[in-house]
Amino acid sequence: MAIDCNGVKIEDRPFDQVREEAIDQLIMNYSHGKLSAEAFERRLDLATNATQHQELVDVVADLTLEPDKQYEQQRERSFSPQYQSGNDTQHERIISVLSSNQHNGQWLVPAEIQVISILGSVELDFSEAIFQHQHVVIRVNNWVGSLDILVPEQVNVVSNMFNIIGSANNKAPSMGGRQAPKIVIEGYSILGSLEVKLKRTMKEKFSAFANQCRDMFGLGKQ
After folding, report:
1. Residue 159 φ then ψ, to 5°
2. How many domains does the chain have?
3. Domain residues for 108?
4. 193, 87: one domain
5. Phi/psi of residue 213, each to 5°?
6. Residue 45's closest CA among 222, 203, 214, 210?
7. Rounded (to 5) percent helix, strand, coil in the chain
8. Which of 188, 192, 158 is closest to 172 using CA atoms?
9. pLDDT digits over 40-65, tens only?
10. Residue 171: pLDDT above 80?
């Protein structure tokens, strides 16, 4: 059993760490064909929604395969932010006037992004973005416009917006480590809106990764 109940009492261990161990073992067993897709989805629901340590212990109690080195390497590649050196881009300006503008896919993120939106809409999707800098600043001038920012869990986001009859909503938890990219949003919004949210839920993220692992081990999605 991957969750070690010896030593420190399970109830005294960090809950998120125990949840991560349980999910890793679920994915490991599913990717090797030890669990059906239906059983995996059901147990993943239990693990992502669990509030007690014992719930996590119970959800993997009958599983025998534990994450190995190959699994850990694949996990690191999938969940670590992408950095790229060279061709360093320092500044980019996005202007949206009565129009819409989207950045998504594997785009290069500059050190500073200036967003000017006048009766327009802008979406910045960082879920597959390639970072050139650990610290990124987004300067916003938003007049009766909307700005949506989509981020993965491993990117930290701080919002320092000034709103005049506007709204700013940051739904993205800062769960990245010290080496993770940090996005700072500053500026103003007049009769406009800013929303920061996760690209995918925790369950969606781990389901996608589990299917990657099945492909890696030659099982595919069944």
Report:
1. -115, 125
2. 2
3. 82-198
4. yes
5. -65, -40
6. 203
7. 30, 30, 40
8. 158
9. 999 999 998 899 999 999 999 999 88
10. no
Question: Of 176, 172, 175, whose CA–CA distance to 185 is shortest?
Answer: 172
94-119 confidence digits (pLDDT tens): 999 999 999 998 899 999 999 999 99
Pair (68, 91) in one structural domain: no
Residue 104, number of CB atoms within 10 A of its CB: 14
The pair phi, psi for residue 112, each rounded to 5°, is -140, 135
Same-domain status, 71 and 127: no
The CA-atom distances, in angstroms, between 128 and each of 2, 104, 107 are 30, 7, 8
Helix, strand or coil, per DSSP, at residue 6: coil
Task: Please tell me whether residues 74 and 86 are part of one structural domain.
Answer: no
Cα 220 to chain center, whole Å? 24
